[in-house]
Amino acid sequence: MKKLICFSILLSPLLLDAQSVTVSDEILIRENVSYYMFDDQRGNVLLFHDRGTSFEVQGFDERLHQQWEKEIELDKKRPELIDVVTIGGDFCVLYTFRKKQHTIVKAHRYNPGANLVDSVSIKDLGGIFYKPNIDVAYSEDKKVALLWSFENQNEINAMAFHMGRMKLLWERKLTTEDFQFGRDFQEMLVDNNGNMYFVLKKENKRSKQSSHYIEIFECSGGEDSQLRRYTVNMQNHLTYDAFFTFDNLNKSLVAGGLYGDDNTAKTDGLFYLNISHANPEDQVLVFHPFEDEFIKILLEKENSKKTSLTEVNVQEIVLRRDGGILMIGELAREFVRGGSSAAYNGRTGIRPIIDYYYDDIFLFSIHPTGELHWKNILHKKQYSQDDDAIYSSYFLAKTPSSLRVVFNDEIKQENTVSEYVINGNGEYDRNAVMNTERKGLAIRFRDGIQISKDTFVAPSERRHKVRLVKVSYEK
Description:
Blueprint: E1 9-10, E2 19-23, E3 27-28, E4 34-39, E5 45-50, E6 55-60, E7 66-72, E8 80-87, E9 90-99, E10 102-110, E11 116-124, E12 135-138, E13 144-151, E14 155-162, E15 167-175, H1 181-184, E16 185-190, E17 196-202, E18 213-219, E19 228-233, E20 238-247, E21 252-260, E22 269-276, E23 283-289, H2 292-299, E24 312-319, E25 325-337, E26 344-346, E27 349-351, E28 353-366, E29 372-378, E30 382-385, E31 395-398, E32 403-408, E33 416-422, E34 428-435, E35 449-452, E36 455-462, E37 465-473
């Protein structure tokens, strides 16, 4: 990769009364395997480049002027990144490397200037012949990393690493009976104290609908510590989709999800689940069937006779301070055109064409009792082809007074960026944020990061080049 100096420009034609937009110059990423964008909690933005065999960090100031760049040295024996994450202004690089035929999991912590502060070998995985697929989940305060991988379909190797103290809190191997990953796995998460929650959906099929339940294993230490197990009877409903998180303020495990009455391929309503950490038997589980009018509006078909939905996802949950949640879902589907007339004849032969449709967003605000507070539908239509939908969906910005759902109106080179501004009562306005006409921007909003209460940054990526786009709202 060439060393490029990135100049920021304030795009006055893009500005509206409510926000300002700053864009960096192009940065070449042709040689990158991936890149990571994060902030140093001082208003500056860092860009981490993974080129497979070398690693580099670039630092940008508040106006996205590049101030410096620095090569990062990891272990020489085939280092492979797991993730790069910010922590208290510093950033932590989690990776594996080979040493004397062994695979080692390691962490490097760097300060905002990309200077090495601390280095810890987290775990020697031994002389395995393959590199395990290690996934990672983070606590809400971003201090604890839960690293986990599966073996033999029913064994889970998990470890909790505190990135603030650079210390392994615990490690454990779990074996579950009658477990199949694709069939039963729901979610793996960790709270601020380093407790792991392994969530399964069991008997989730029509033939065993009356027996369907959610199973949760809680692990708070190594092999000698007690493993807590608790279950949730899904009351004759099937789980279509769900999103779990831990509410550290109210000390409870919560979930928002979609259920089906007799089929996991369609959803007939939503559910809210709240489990007290102190007493897992203290559970709130409430189901809300979709109203016919809601489905008609969401599908934009007044004469629709549908009473259920397909091709929808729970995208995220926003925790309310009172213990309730805001559940956000989205209409999303893929259409594969695999016929010879529609297929793409590339250098590697004929391959199918994939169409991506990301349409309306729906929100449900739910009280901690499970009672529905309000619901709303935010209309949008996004279509793209063969791009893995990287420019579709949305970014959720959380400001002190509202939530902002920011998205591309259309997936094309010249486009309008819009936002929905939603207050605590569910009332909203739709605004235009910017126009990208003749600006060469293709913004990946779903990969954006919020760097302050009123500012977020998202990458714009085109033709192996990336530009950083910062949106700041008036204080």
